[in-house]
Amino acid sequence: MKKITLLSIMLATLAGLGGCSSGANLGELDARLQEIKARPRGRIEPPPEFKPVASYSYAAHKLRSPFSPPVDQQLIAVPEGKTVEPDMGRPKEYLERFALDSLQMVGTISRPGEPLQALIADPSGAVTRVKPGSYMGKNFGQVKAVSEAKVSLIEIVPDGRDGWVERASNVAISE
User: Fold this and answer.
1) Residue ranges per domain, the chain?
2) For a tag on the chain, would you pick the N or C end, based on fewer CB atoms within 10 A?
3) Rounded to an integer, what distance in angstroms lies between the CA atom of residue 170 and that of residue 59?
C-alpha cells in the first residue's frame, strides 16, 4: 500500500515538471516582449505652471482670545456680610415642582385675623393657597407679600460663580 502511494506521488511530480518545460513556447513570448519594447515611448507632459498666490500675514494671534475676559473688565463685587444660600434640607412644598412662569394667580382669599392668601393655579389646573413664608417655583422662591393684584417673592438663583444671589419676582393675577 505504501509503494502504491509513493509511486503515485512520484508520477504526479514528474507530470507537473514535464508541463513546465516541454510544451512552453518561449520564442513567442520573447517576440511579444521585443514588439512591446520596439514601440515608441510615450511623452509625459510637463506639469502646469502655477501662478504664485499672494501671501496673507495672519496677525490675529496678537489679539485677545475670545474665551478670556477683557483686560479692563472689573470683577463684580461680592457683597460682604450675609451669604445667600438655599436651604437644601427643607422639605419642598407642592408649588416648587413648577417653573414660576407656568404658575398663575387666579385670586385671593382672606380669613379674619389671618394675612391675605393668594390662590395659585398650577399647569394641571389645581389651585393652591399661598401666604407670606410659603415657597413656590423651581428657584427656591419664598413668598414675601401677597396683595390683591400680585404675589411678591424672593428667589435664590445661582450667580454663575459658584454662589447664590437673591432675585425679586412677581406672579400677577391673570385677567
Assistant:
1) 96-172
2) C
3) 50
Fold of 96-172: SH3 type barrels. (2.30.30)
Name the grid cell of 135.
415657597
To the question of pTM greater than 0.70 for the whole model, the response is: no
Are the C-beta atoms of residues 108 and 148 closer than 8 Å to each other? yes
Nearest C-alpha neighbor of 136 from the set 110, 114, 117, 115: 117
Cα(1)–Cα(7) distance, integer angstroms: 10
Q: What is the pLDDT of residues 56-81, one digit of tens each?
A: 887 777 777 778 766 554 444 555 65
Q: DSSP class of residue 168?
A: E
For residue range 129-166, what is the model confidence (pLDDT) as tens digits? 999 999 999 999 999 999 999 999 999 988 877 788 88
